[in-house]
Design brief:
globular, 3-stranded antiparallel sheet, alpha+beta, 12 strands, Beta-lactamase, single chain
Length: 355
């Protein structure tokens, strides 16, 4: 993150305790069409609001009920589902996961469920798939074949390698364990009990916000733009959705800010005990050998321990920030590749600490 922008964001929070105004200022500073956000403190919604547009052409306003693709925040949902299977004794965190790197020596330690959850399995980030440029996302068979033949980057449990492939593998573990699709299992076991009715996987979803490239820029460049770049709208291009298929457990879900606020409350330990015990939710924030928790990145802001995750998919960007000690959670969704929802979340977090 740009440290100068972060300082400016914190200064804005100090000068303007009005959270709607702060959100407007941050959106304009980042030149983002639309942003939605929810701030939770002490199991109460401190702020729920939006700024800008979900669709520039129709001037449809962004709202906290607007659906966006949440990218890698999908991993948090997948982790909750896996840990529910652990609590119901359908899986064990130390269970070896069959079908990964089958050519390794017999004496090599196996990849375990906990390794996949904490990015310590030694799996590559994207494998040998080029889906961000081709939109050719693997189906279950292609992912299984890759997992069987891949070579690990490190001994399982010995290092940190952030991996979308690892969470694709967890999706396959879920499907084999339950005998149903990842999306169906997620809805019946997590989303419906938490009343997250605007959330699901995989897409596409109806009434979803448009995602946009930055002004006058195709990412990563005009010679090789990301797949799914559509029509021009003013000085931007619309980013098109592409089905993540077997990678949906890693980055293929969609949600509204309101629903993610519900998820954030749940992760802080409020409600949802039938989905996952508070003890297991606390365990998600315990450091593993990789330095991550189970499905959550562990860091500190101003000396305060926080758990967080961000996401990106088709120009939709997202961030969830959790401070369990202060009982504060912040959710931010934005619809442009120029957005830094992490910076917006940290500014709203700083403002919430002052309330």
């Amino acid at each position: 993150m740009n440290s100068l922008f972060l300082l400016a964001a914190f200064a804005g929070a100090a000068a303007s305790p009005d959270l709607p105004t702060l959100l407007d200022e941050l959106r304009i500073a980042q030149d983002v069409p639309g942003v939605s956000a929810v701030v939770i403190r002490d199991d109460t919604v401190l702020f729920s609001g939006a700024s800008g547009f979900a669709d520039i052409e129709s001037a449809t306003p962004m709202s906290t009920d607007t659906k966006l693709y949440i990218g890698s925040l999908s991993k948090v949902l997948t982790a909750v589902l896996v840990l529910q299977l652990v609590e119901t004794q359908r899986l064990g965190l130390d269970d070896p996961v069959p079908g990964i790197a089958l050519g390794r020596p017999d004496a090599a330690p196996p990849v375990r469920v906990s390794h996949l959850l904490s990015h310590s399995a030694g799996l590559d980030r994207e494998g040998d798939f080029n889906y961000w440029y081709t939109t050719e996302f693997p189906d279950a068979g292609a992912l299984d074949r890759y997992l069987e033949t891949t070579q690990l980057l490190s001994v399982p449990g010995a290092g940190m390698h952030y991996s979308n492939i690892a969470y694709g593998a967890l999706g396959r573990v879920i499907e084999r364990t339950l005998g149903q699709s990842y999306g169906d299992a997620l809805r019946s076991r997590v989303l419906e009990p938490l009343h997250m009715n605007a959330t699901g996987a995989p897409g596409p979803a109806a009434d979803i916000a448009n995602g946009y490239t930055p002004p006058n820029r195709l990412l990563p460049d005009s010679a090789r733009p990301f797949a799914g770049v559509g029509r021009r709208v003013g000085d931007r291009h619309v980013r098109l959705y592409h089905d993540a298929r077997a990678m949906s457990p890693a980055f293929g879900a969609y949600a509204s800010a309101r629903d993610l606020g519900t998820l954030a409350r749940f992760l802080l330990g409020h409600g949802g005990d039938t989905v996952l015990s508070r003890r297991m939710r606390l365990r998600m924030r315990e450091p593993q050998s990789s330095g991550w928790g189970l499905g959550l990145k562990l860091q500190a802001i101003g000396g305060r321990p926080v758990a967080r995750h961000d996401g990106w998919f088709a120009a939709h960007r997202s961030h969830v920030l959790l401070d369990a000690d202060s009982d504060i959670a912040v959710v931010v969704l934005a619809n442009s590749d120029s957005a830094s929802p992490q910076a917006i979340a940290e500014a709203l977090y700083a403002a919430a600490l002052r309330q």
